[in-house]
Amino acid sequence: AIRPLIFAGILIFITACEQTIEVDLGDYESKPVVYCILQPDSLPKLYLTESTNYFTYIDDSNKYNFIKGAFVIINNGNSNDTLEQTNAVEYGDYQSYDWEKDSSYLFRPSADVVVYVGKTKIESGKTYNLAINYNEKNILASTYVPYSPSIDSVTIDSITEYGYTATIMKVYFK
What we know:
Strand content: over 45%
Oligomer: single chain
Order of helices and strands: HEEEEEEEEEEE
Radius of gyration: 27 Å
């Protein structure tokens, strides 16, 4: 006699807990996104995009909102380098990468990309200032490119426990 009442109570509870809630998120204002690669002995590369609303549907046609026609300058304290806009296609496939002869693979999807590339190689030990101007908006950034660490020595040890051998490599820096 009590089981049908419990079942009826659970059924009423489950079916009665539905409510539609509407939330007004307001208008979304996109922000510039700067991704800049400064690597010693390489040309500077900068990707400039606009952010999208979290709830925006994204497919392959609007995956990135690249900003075209920006004026980009990078300065190292001695000289200015104006980065030129380059349009490229990055093809989607599995790209191998060589991190100390690692044979792993990474999937990279196809994309039409806009890259701003400089003409002067980056130098270690310098501070770089970035200035971007587009649509009457200015973006400023600064960073220091450190020297590569010097390796003092490398040791390799092997430890065997429970039938398994582990190789441990220790790198000591100056």
